[in-house]
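WARN no homologs supplied; continuing
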Amino acid sequence: MLKKQITLALLLLCLSMPVVASAEMLEVIGVGKAPITENASATSAKAIKNAKRAAVEELLTKLIGPTAPSDPKVQAAMEKILVQIGDNKIVKKNAAKDEENNYEVTITVRIDTLEFLKLMQTQGIAPTGDRLSKILVVMDEYHTTPTDKQKPLREVVEYSHDKTATSEASLSASHSAASDTKASASQSSASRADYAAGGSSSGQSSGGYSGAYGGGGYSSGHSSSGYAAGSAAQRSSSSADYSNQSAEASSLDKKSFDQKKDVVNFKKLVEYQPQNTGPDKENLTYAALMREARKFDLAMMDNSVLRSTYFRGKALTIQEMDSSPELARYVEFARKNKADYFMMGNSIIRDLGGNQCDGVVSLKAFSTEDNELLAADMHNESARGTSSDDCRATVANKLAYFVGKTLGSSIKDFHRQREVSGKEYTVVLLSAVGDLTGRMTSSFSRALANMKGLNSKVNVRNSTNREYEVVLAYKGEQPFADALGDVLDAVASLKQADYTVNGTRVEICLEGPRRCK
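OK structure emitted
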């Protein structure tokens, strides 16, 4: 019984302890050789040291770039770093004798990324590009609870029934009414004829009085037989028209009945409790990310000051910003305030009850210079804490670690890619009056191809008498603007031209920048 209680207590203790986010591990292979001598242990130690050196060189190449092993500063720091790589970092080792009778060792070194970065920082060989490039992070955090499908706030039921024409009986009644109307009209016509035949006259009688007058007409003075005949004909025609109209109405009723439908509308709306009421004022994920950034040697900008300066107190969530023109304007504002990279994201942390919680974070990072995407990802975590607030903080730390790791690695990869391939530029030669000739653009293209530091072909995207656009990669020692100035000086027809630089887009105006705006 006591043993069970102790086991249960240990289990509860483990569950209540905060969970540390798993570290990102780097794994590389190194191969080392040493001539076989009579001293087997010395031979083995030398081969392993050479294998460690090869593994460290691979690590430096991954984190700095392909030129790192040949850098004199890196070579000087190599011995001190090798001492810190103990045998406990070797997870696999194979030994054999090669064709030249050397003792050859292949080892696999596994080390925590942050640990190795710390070694590089201590020796002063950590990549400076990561620290010099500033990152602006905008992030909202939502703290909520799961939707309880068993406890809706309210239910609304809407019902309507449109049934204007229902049965053939209605149509039969309509025919019957039309027939009665027609019979009534005939009887009325006959009554008028009878009245005309036996009608009386006051005043002087005339031979012009006729039963064909219709309707019991009465004449004072002399009468006109022509008028009586015409009036009778008109009334007879009117009676016939009325009968025809009744029959036509009956036909229309049947046609309308055929087109009408029995329409029933039913709608049920179930409203549950809102999962959140907007971003939380206390953003634990953002605060944890600022701490993680130091571990990954990232230069972070404080978004609170920049955001309040731009938006002037206006509340705008990341979701609202992402779906409006404000995002492009804010990124441009951030770039002018020395932000090289921009990351936006949301974290949602749910309180599951019982001191348990989970969370998900989404992020998107890109360069403010040319909007090149660096990373786009999402990640979920879960935790148990001593309280709901403690659980929330634990999940926020886990999410922040993932964001810091993703952001840090993506920026380092971006820098290494640029170091190897160069930075891509778009160069546009413009003429406000359409004076770009074929010979001029050809001379300009040849001068670009001979530019010192060019690391690609000159790819033409557009060529007209007003615009000549090319794309190229540059990795020279001097700034690209200075190198471009040398190109313009080399083309006689472009010596008077001037240019403007906006990120990685350069516009050269033949008549001067003001004329091409």
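The domain at 423-509 is CATH 3.30.1360.210 (Gyrase A; domain 2).
OK
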